[in-house]
Amino acid sequence: MTKVELRKIYKERRKQLSAQQIEKFTDCILINFQKIQLPFISYMHTYIASEKLREADTSAIAQYLQFKNPGLIILVPKIDMTSGGMQHIHFHEDTALKYNLNGIGEPVEGKLYDANEIDLALVPLLAFDEKGYRVGYGKGYYDKFLSQCKDDVIKIGISFFEPVRKIEDVNQYDIPLNYCVTPKMVYEFF
């Protein structure tokens, strides 16, 4: 299937999930995430989950990684709608958020970091395939961001659903994940 077809199907599949299913799936994702053998990381990028988009909450994963990596700096995105770029802003418990049109919390202010400093990126997605390619929301923000990261950045997708066999219209700008974590298992792509 194509990205457009998969985007439509998986947006609808997410809408069908109850709040209880989302909570259970998010808990299972955390359990499976903890099975990944990661090196020490100093900087991680994570998205702030949108209830409107029915995304998996990554806050428990971030807390787990902070415990395993003392001094970990957590960065969250702020999208520049005009340039299509993404800023990476230091996030902590006192960070004030402003919600954009998609219901995504973005920091009002904070210290900026470069994409090439990031050791691990949690990547939102709607669907992914057996080779680690993903279908996002269609704006290209994450593909652009990931292309600016250092070569060894660890890219981990978070999905409520298992992979499709193949995304038919993968192109040269699509960057595959290293892992994708679902409620059932961890997929590795190397």
As for the number of domains, it is: 1
- The overall pLDDT, averaged over residues, is 94
User: Looking at this structure, what is the CATH superfamily?
Assistant: NagB/RpiA/CoA transferase-like
**Strand-residue fraction?**
15-25%
Query: Any idea what the CATH architecture is?
Result: 3-Layer(aba) Sandwich
Please give the order of strands in the largest beta sheet.
Answer: 6-3-2-1-7-10-11-12
Shape: globular
The total of beta strands comes to 12
By DSSP (H or I, 4+ residues per run), the number of helices equals 4
Largest sheet: 8 strands, mixed
Q: Can you give the helix content as a percent range?
A: 10-25%
**Which topology does CATH recognise?**
Rossmann fold
Distance between the termini: 23 Å
Q: Unreliable runs, pLDDT <50, ≥5 residues?
A: none
Structural class: alpha/beta
Assigned CATH class? Alpha Beta
**Gyration radius over CA:** 16 Å
Order of helical and strand elements: HHEHEEEEEEEEHEEE
Describe this structure in words.
With 190 residues, the protein is α/β, with parallel strands linked by helices. It has one domain: 3-Layer(aba) Sandwich (Rossmann fold). The protein is built from 4 helices and 12 strands. It has helices spanning 3-15, 19-33, 59-68, 141-148; strands at residues 43-45, 73-80, 85-91, 97-99, 105-107, 112-113, 120-124, 127-128, 134-135, 154-158, 179-181, 186-188. The strands form 3 sheets. The protein has an 8-stranded mixed beta sheet, sandwiched between helices. Strands 4-5 form a two-stranded antiparallel sheet. A hairpin with a 4-residue loop joins strand 2 and strand 3. The chain is globular, with a radius of gyration of 16 Å. The chain starts with a helix and ends with a strand.
